[in-house]
Amino acid sequence: MTTLLIRGAALLGDHVEDLRIRDGIIAARGALSPETDERVIDARGLIGLPGLVDLHTHLREPGGEASETVLTGTRAAAAGGFTTVHAMANTSPVADTAGIVEQVQRLGERHGYATVRPIGAVTLGLAGQQLAEIGAMARSTARVRVFSDDGHCVHDPLLMRRALEYVSTFDGVIAQHAQEPRLTEGAQMNEGVLSGELGLGGWPAVAEEAIIARDVLLAEHVGARLHVCHLSTAGSVDVVRWAKARGISVTAEVTPHHLLLTEELARGYDARFKVNPPLRRDDDVHALRAALADGTIDIIATDHAPHPTEAKECTWAEAAFGMVGLESALSVVQQAVVDTGMLTWGDIARVLSSAPAEIGRVAGYAHPLEIGSPANITLVDPSHAREWSTADLRGRSVNSPYLGRALPGRVVYTVYQGVVTVDDGALVEPEAVVAAHEEAARG
Amino acid sequence: MKHLLSTRDLDRATAIGILDVAEDMAKTADREVRKLPALRGKTVVNLFFEDSTRTRLSFESAAKRLSADVITFSAKGSSVSKGESLKDTAQTLAAMGADAIVVRHHNSGAAHQLAHAGWVDAAIINAGDGTHEHPTQALLDAYTIRDRRFVDSARGRDLSGLRVTIVGDILHSRVARSNVWLLTTLGAEVHLVAPRTLLPHGVEHWPVAVHEHLDDALAAGPDAIMMLRIQSERMREAYFPSTHEFAREWGLTAERLALLGPDTMVMHPGPMNRGLEISSAAADSDRSTVLAQVTNGVSIRMAVLYLLVAGTSGIAESAGGAR
Fold first, then answer.
1. Where do the H-state alpha helices sit in A199-303?
2. Which residues of A are catalytic?
3. Most exposed of A49, A210, B28, B185 (fewest Cβ within 10 Å)?
4. B7-134+294-319 in CATH: which number?
5. B20-51: pLDDT as tens digits
6. Of A200, A206, A269, A309, which to mutate for an interface test with B (greatest number of B Cβ within 10 Å)?
7. Residue in chain A lying closest to B128 (CA)
């Protein structure tokens, strides 16, 4: 029986305690002494967090293997301290059948870097015309609970109403990409003074806010659960705050990049900064941070969106929307809301682990770092500082908006189901991860 | 300055310097031998991803009068229509030894990317990018206004005290944007006129006066009125209900022409939609500067090519600009 002892980490950034991991479970907690043959990780000076849970990840497999695969994406996830990712449905073919979601889930299990929870499409082929086989995906071995047409808005109000009602039959949630399509035709960046000056098509805040307003009212009317993806404007915050005060069952997410970056970055027409929803104004960034701190926004999700180089080395209008974000998420969040004193590490454990797990109905994250919980653990060195570079990216794509930017913090260890996947800052190789899981299974 | 990407980047002294060099270039047109040897041995590439016969011919003519070798590359029917990227096309042309690349592209920021992405070394001249900027058009417009108003005493002057009114589809117009920045830098008072649907979001933060009705703007007594080409497909995109209504509300009709002061210039970057934004009476009147703009366009483009390509110095140094 091999066990692992993590010594001296400040758990949830708070009190220093040791953790013993046995059989993939946190077996003991407190002041612990090493046992014979036990591996000991010296975690003094590190923050102990539960393994992070991303509710919004594009793994691109099947169909987009040139930019990411389940293996490369979950390696990037592990490097960023994530132990569960939710794989968005906009693959090719679309994840709108039980067969596809089961395949994606199995690939995650085979590689062993993180739990991969497939997200099912709301509508067949993401076409917004008819419902996908939601029941079949929910009852499949993948047990899908989150449904989203992300990349597209479920804009037909009747279809959205039906979808909300139907997924609630299976304890599911609709994760809505809130974007009124007619108001965003040709949209390239946030609509404002800068878009007018740069001659880039505007993506007005109202196109997001109007859909969120409609959807929270629909969710109230039918008594269903709604999740708002990548909320990006101060106005959206107001709408969600109002809905929550009214008792509507709505949750909201914000991305790390919307907590740190602004539309000013579009000035150089560098398409690495092109993302959907677009980077907004400084006022929006501050409203989003405040909303995360006061609980109006429930979670942070990466919207990790890998793209091949050629999809970004072109004119802004031709470039793909999206940026990679798994590896950098925790550092960006530290800079935006921890180092600014708005959130504690305990809050981070909530918004990046237990709360997204609750929304996605992922088991094992409700009692972070408690005895009896699965050993999904991330150890962070918050004092580390570095200039972000492609060497820090572990997925297949390099479309990061942070390249050349100074970011704090570093994930030093990631433990997934008791298996170390990031060891002293280095990703463990795939064969070793698989072997460690097999050994653990033999007991 | 190595490139000409935007008039927003030009300071007053640099802009006046370009206009003055253009004046010198214009004088050479009266000589028996029009050709200057300034760019002998240099290669200027015209890279046109978007059709524009008049701008392309103007740049070709300017480069040839300066004795440059000229290569023109039009996207239609070329490798670009087969999916080649801006980067690959530009690098291919640079590998052929381009000293300057004149680029016209349907997407905003294309010239900026060529200049700053590190793909090519050549001087980049923006000949119109999407709905962003068209700096040589603004320069030739400023030149035309200055020349027409001050004639022999134009050299060295800016446009202080002049009121220029730009009318029409401001939202989609790179000509309007370049003119707003350049004309205000040169001290002119710029007025914009358009229905609210065709004004950019945030225009209230621009250094201009905005009118929604053309008659209000005319009452302010412009020294020059610049009519922009309106594309009739905007009607289908619900920017305005009909071309008839647009012509009636925002067109320079014969009736409105009669209201203009005796010295007010009527300008148009071309090509004109007669009967839509401009009546034939206005286009053909002796106030019209339309053909002078075409002629001046060659002089301006000669000046820009000369300042960017001849020798090693850029625009600011040669023209005595401050930056």
1. 205-222, 234-245, 256-260, 282-294
2. 303
3. B28
4. 3.40.50.1370
5. 999 999 998 888 888 899 999 999 999 999 88
6. A269
7. A199
